[in-house]
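Table S2 (text version). Query chain:
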Amino acid sequence: MARQLQFPIRHTRQSRTYSPAEYSTEPGVIIPVTGDLFKNKLRQRNNSEYYHMVDAYLSYDNTFNHHHIRGLVGFNYEQDYQKNLYSTMMDIQSNNLNDFNLGNHTEGVSLEGGQYEWALESFFGRVGYDWKGRYLAEVNLRWDASSRFRRDKRAAVFPSVSAGWRVSEEPFFAPIRNTFSNFKIRGSFGSLGNQAISSPYPYIQTLDLLQQNYLVNGEFLTYASVSAPTAGNFTWETVVHGNLGLDLGFFNNRLTFAGDLYIRDTKDMLVPGKTLPGVYGAASPKENAADLRTKGYELTLSWNDKFNLAGKPFTYGVSLALGDNISKITKYDNPTKDFNVSQYYEGMTIGEIWGYKIDGLFKTDEEAAAYQAEIDHSLIAKNILQTATGKYKGLKAGDPKFVDLDGNGRIDDGEKTANNRGDMRVIGNSRPRYNYSGSINLGWNGFDISAFFQGVGRQHRYPDGNAMLFWGGYARPYSSFVPEHFLDDVWSEDNPDAYFPKLRGYAAQGDRHLAKVNNRYLQNTAYCRLKNLTVGYTLPVDLTRKARIDRVRVYFSGDNLVTWTALKSKYIDPEQFSTDGSARVYPFAKTFSFGLDITF
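Corresponding structure-token output:
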């Protein structure tokens, strides 16, 4: 029997100092910056966390007459308690010293608190069996209870079963075993629960004490505010996973293959329910409102071998891996597929991106004016038609030509339903597709080389309005950063085939025309990255042994050395851009290291 007990206690202290600031827009005029971030104050946060975890299990393992039986039963309990204290002191008399004694003790003190607690209890068991390593089976059973659900919805049972058959271990397989080394068929089916919700008390409404900014009878009014209504009756999200796998080996397992096909159904997804009427007065609460089905595959192919080269053994290995999946909503209460009701609807592919189609840039002012007279652009080009002045008002040469796909004489998003979204179509998907990796290993006469590649075959992202590394002046004209050769990509009379349109400030922000998702500026963040390259040399043993050293190896290692990408920017990391459309993330750094390993 094994057991594990953990009772860590963590204390965290954070301190922030806010100082006044000034700026000037013209010589001799100094203006103080207003806003909460520039008030003279010191703010500290003290956090105490008490985490308790108990893990106990009993295992059994025995073999008799080629029958191998193993079993395990266990118990797990986790409990976490956190308490926060926020304190603020105004009018700090120093920009260098951080202490509450330097502040205004009569009017400049504020205190805030907060605490929460959650617990998770689990019982689990497993029984496995195999005969001569040929026929394999295993059954698992879990019982989980979470404090995040109300008492009658707190517990759930999650079973699973798996089986395998090593065909290559059968007697009839012996004649071809040297060539066909391994043949294994396996499958599994089971479920697991998910209770990951941000709030520790999502099923109950809470009261918050707030203070008004105006006086009542000479005092500030304190009142209690109730949180938004909750669904209350939700419970575990259940993930049901079915998998069929195949393992193959050839030529004494020099060539190996592993393949998996799977279907994963997420039942009773914890998502906001359908949008409620405005008179409800609150956002839709989370509930078990949707089902999701994911279909995918994972493939791995490897070759490892060796031969003599110039009288020395040369070893090498190559491995490739590829995986892909697609997820679709299979149940949700939005029969009209109305995007005003919810972003979910039955048949929806998770990650789909809707956008307009752009058919190039206008060649002349006359072409643009004729198209403006024919097609109403008032919904998607307010900054051009209404805000712009002088020679910039109205569609001009170099502006993007949005296509009226539904032929109604107006560029719009129709009834905002999946069946009628006007001129918008699904133009991409934000989920990564065709995840792949590859590795190469070589070794000869003390030299060793290894390289690891990783990438994504297809993934789309439309740059946010603050993606200045992509948009440049189309986002914020005052930005101190302008991409090198930016103007080479901007339309002008001398550059009519440019990638970017006529330069209009802030065009990618707010409700302006480049902020409207479209196919021309939708980015494919597919990439291939050399994640690591290592080159080493191990000195001959005959030399190191004389110095009573077992092994000496010198090496060079580099990380993130090269990245190939379809993204139309050399300043944005494609892997990070897929999760942050503003690209305000510090990019992965290229790392070079040299080392010496000595073993005595």
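Notes on Table S2: Residues 488 and 495 are 8 Å apart (CA to CA). The two ends are 39 Å apart (CA to CA).
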